[in-house]
Amino acid sequence: MNRRIVVLLFCWFAAAIAGRLGAQLPGDTVSIPPFLKVEKSVIELNDADWSLFFECLGRLQQGPDSLAEVVSVVHIGDSHVQAGFLTEAVRRPLQQQFGDAGRGLVVPLKLAKTNEPRDYSIVADEVWNFARCVGKKYSDYTPGIGGIAIVPRNDKIDLTVSTLSKTDDCAGFKEVLLFHAPTDSFPVVVSDPCRVTGKTLLPFLTAYSWNEPVCSIHLTGEVTPGKDRPAIYGASLETGEGGILYHTIGNNGAFYSSYAAIPGFSEQVAALAPQLIILSLGTNESFSTALTREELYGQIDAVLAPLRKNCPQVAILLTTPAECARRRTRWVKKRRRVYYTPNTRVTLVRETIRAYAAEHGLACWDWYEVAGGKGASAQWQKAGLMAYDRTHCTEPGYHIQGEMLYRTLMKAYQDYVDRMAQ
Length: 422
Prior knowledge:
Elements: H1 3-18, H2 21-24, E1 43-44, H3 51-60, E2 70-77, H4 79-82, H5 85-98, E3 104-106, E4 120-123, E5 128-132, E6 148-152, E7 156-163, E8 173-180, E9 189-191, E10 196-197, E11 199-202, E12 205-214, E13 216-222, E14 232-238, E15 243-250, H6 256-260, H7 265-270, E16 276-280, H8 283-286, H9 293-310, E17 315-319, E18 325-332, E19 335-342, H10 346-359, E20 363-365, H11 367-370, H12 376-382, H13 395-421
Parallel strand pairs: 2-15, 2-16, 16-17, 17-20
Antiparallel strand pairs: 1-20, 3-14, 4-7, 5-6, 7-13, 8-12, 8-14, 9-10, 9-13, 11-12, 18-19
Helix pairs in contact: 1-13, 5-13, 9-10
């Protein structure tokens, strides 16, 4: 069967599905406030070719022959991403629509003394040393794909990795890709449900699998005396079935430059075989008063150029940060008062991200404009969708942002199907 016939069949089938998306979006679970500019929520493709990504989504809806296919999405960001509320609101409806291939990348954030999403846990009986790509504590260790590294203090590895659920049902997985410090033989055995040794796929990646889904595994092993201590970066939890894998990489306080400084970051991201990479950064850059447009442009390129080299066919989406506010103080009748003013440097960051995307043929979602543009932070805070700091959203606020991103991705997908069907 030639490619033209395959494309026509794909378009016929996908059009039947996509024609109903507006009424059946599984993500329609939140009320969109009136100050959002919903009509502005479009993906500016800037001549980027997303056809491969969209065709992969279409094949997931074509029945039994697509059951083994996985579409991998990697979402990289700062504190807006680390908490997991935003990405959960994108991941869950995508998996309802196209199939659930697993939880994706989980990172030992709590063991690195920072907050972790609520739907998984990585725990240990012993205290581990750690390194973070932001706020580094131990300079002897190098963070990995998730911006984190944890290193055992003694000669034993003893970790439990579990998926958690608010509804007490099991988010099971049958395969694990463990990211770790480059080594020829990583000294870990997976126990519960069974004892299996890992298969090394790459110097930093070991794969484990078993027959039945589980909600928890135990990683255990001995550290060889006299050798470099092993470091664990994170693990991708997968069902072994077709669908969406939505990997989240988020670090509080992260800049573009934070990820550019991680050795081998793009190679590790490439190991997740992404079809779409989303970068949601820029808020922290907007609080750096000394950062120039040229410097920011270069920092964006320092992340994107290696990613494009190692993932040459991947679709890339840059998002702009919403308006935030700066904390100010003043004295009123000998009392110190705190107030907030809009952070005007967000517009510089927004313009630089959009310019980079346009000049390099990359897609962009202008969340700044969609969220309400100038003055939006006050409206979000008044509506209970933004925290008192006027920078971070509340959980409902992040759910709205995630749902808007999901709807916008689905609109772009349907537009593609409609064009191909003409």
